Amino acid sequence: DADVTQTPRNRITKTGKRIMLECSQTKGHDRMYWYRQDPGLGLQLIYYSFDVKDINKGEISDGYSVSRQAQAKFSLSLESAIPNQTALYFCATSDPGQGASLFFGQGTRLTVV
Amino acid sequence: TQLLEQSPQFLSIQEGENLTVYCNSSSVFSSLQWYRQEPGEGPVLLVTVVTGGEVKKLKRLTFQFGDARKDSSLHITAAQPGDTGLYLCAGPYNQAGTALIFGKGTTLSVSS
């Protein structure tokens, strides 16, 4: 089983719908992250969390919200999806400290029509 | 917020050639990381550099961190088709170093 699991792997939704992307991890890491990847734009940081009570905005948090339900679970919500939120979304985890590696899930491909 | 610029954006070469990709910023970074991403997968860490002027080698890959810690390079010797992928540099999001931001990446294609 993967250390960082994202569900669903693929999702098509309609404009205006609320959608939740889920991430769970078995690595025992406190730190979890959500990134968005668009062709030619690399990875952009949406939100990050260093423990259950800690939530921080990243580079592009507008239109998104997150919930850290437990150390192992971090979900990303789009309250009212719009077409330009069509992208590949990655969850990641890490140990604390600079230089610590990010461990990524396999991604969720979201299409908003 | 600090920014990372990568160049070139695309690189298509023949097996056996050498190549260098670059990661530059106007800001000083306490550390930089390089990741490689294959289609359908998440990025995987290749190396972390933390000291200005540092050089690290990983088989045919050589990573260098600039003396001023504002830039880094990745050099691949005798590229192979298995090196094909997206190469991303990453550094701390802010002075607290609490999360990573990424450059836009270099897409490398090595043909045999």
Write a compact overview of the structure shown.
The complex is a heterodimer of chains A (113) and B (112). Chain A has strands spanning 4-7, 10-13, 19-25, 31-38, 42-51, 54-57, 65-70, 73-78, 87-94, 103-104, 108-112.
Number of helices of chain A: 0
Radius of gyration of chain B: 13 Å
The first-to-last residue Cα distance of chain B is 41 Å
Helical amount of chain B: under 10%
- Classify the oligomer: heterodimer
Instruction: Please write the string of helix (H) and strand (E) elements of chain A.
Output: EEEEEEEEEEE
pLDDT averaged residue by residue of chain B: 93
Termini Cα gap of chain A: 32 Å
Number of helices of chain B: 0
The chain-level structural class of chain A is: mainly beta
Q: Specify which chain pair forms the largest interface.
A: A-B, 25 and 28 residues
What best-fitting shape of chain B do the alpha-carbon axes yield?
globular
Helical percent range of chain A? under 10%
Which residues of chain A form runs of ≥5 with pLDDT under 50? none
Shape of chain A: globular
Which spans of chain B of ≥5 residues are poorly predicted at pLDDT below 50?
none
Based on DSSP secondary structure assignment, what is the total number of beta strands of chain A?
11
Structure description:
The complex is a heterodimer of chains A (113) and B (112). Chain A has 113 residues and is an all-beta fold. Chain A is built from no helices and 11 strands. Chain A has strands at 4-7, 10-13, 19-25, 31-38, 42-51, 54-57, 65-70, 73-78, 87-94, 103-104, 108-112. In chain A, a hairpin with a 3-residue loop joins strand 4 (31-38) and strand 5 (42-51). Chain A is globular and about 40 Å long. With 112 residues, chain B is an all-beta fold. Chain B has no helices and 11 strands. Chain B has strands spanning 5-7, 10-14, 19-24, 32-37, 44-49, 55-58, 61-65, 71-76, 85-92, 100-102, 106-111. Chain B is globular. The mean pLDDT of chain B is 93. The interface between A and B is medium-sized, with 25 and 28 residues.
